Prior knowledge:
Elements: H1 3-12, H2 15-37, H3 41-44, E1 50-51, H4 54-59, H5 63-66, H6 74-92, H7 97-121, E2 131-132, H8 136-149, E3 154-157, E4 160-163, H9 164-178, H10 185-206, H11 213-225, H12 241-271, H13 278-289
Antiparallel strand pairs: 1-2, 3-4
Amino acid sequence: MDTQNLSYKFKTSSVIVKLIVINLAIFLLVNLISFFMQIAPESLVAWFVLPDAFGELIVQPWSFISYAFIHFGFWHLLFNMLWLYWFGNFVLNLFDGKRFLTVYLLGAIFGGLLYVLSYNLFPVFENSRSYLIGASGAVTAIMVFIATYTPNAQMRIFTWNIKLWHIAVFLVLLDLIRLPTSGNAGGMLAHLGGAIFGYVYGSQLLKGNDIGKWFENFMDWFANLFKTRKQKPFKKVHRTTTRKSSSRSSTTDKTATQKKVDAILDKIGKSGYDSLSKEEKDFLFKAGKE
């Protein structure tokens, strides 16, 4: 296997492909380690799932993002990645990868926030303990964002062309209907949190307000922390004062010599070589040798 070629393909692929590869790699890694080491997946990634207790969140704040990259079930992963690919390409047709990643990660964070707040504020969850995993909240944010920004864009499903806003409304309503009875209230809440963020971001962007710009700047700052800073080598400074002075002196001497030579040649032209004094003849002889 050509690892160099695979590495190049990964680096040059779209942000959607990179996210799918990362999610798939984490899924395989967790499940393989769990199988061979006979460790429950929940125990293996306990520090990366999103807990519902504030006390646990304080010591693992990164879980607001890391939970969105963890899947235990194959079908859970498959459908999340399919939705990500289908709706994500609509986003990349209009925006760059940085905007896409902003919607995705902030969608995960807001989905996690609604989940945590709901489990700590609403009496119905008072005696419930759970944790959150999966990219559903982030993917829902992508879906609702693009459905809000370009509601009349169409997706072909089998033989029908369906507008994006119709699909988004249907899926959000389905989550609301299933919330009390699905047995996965936490997941449904994460979907709704991502949907709310996607709608607000998309509608504000239509008005010219980029509410995700601060996060893009934060990502740039964070990425720069890991970049190798190439220090420019110190330039050696050579002092050339003396050389310049000697150069100027040499030029001056040559000019004076040339003038004297010209004067002697003029004298020869007028009166002949025999009219020159011994000093003039010696000078002309030496000048001819230099």
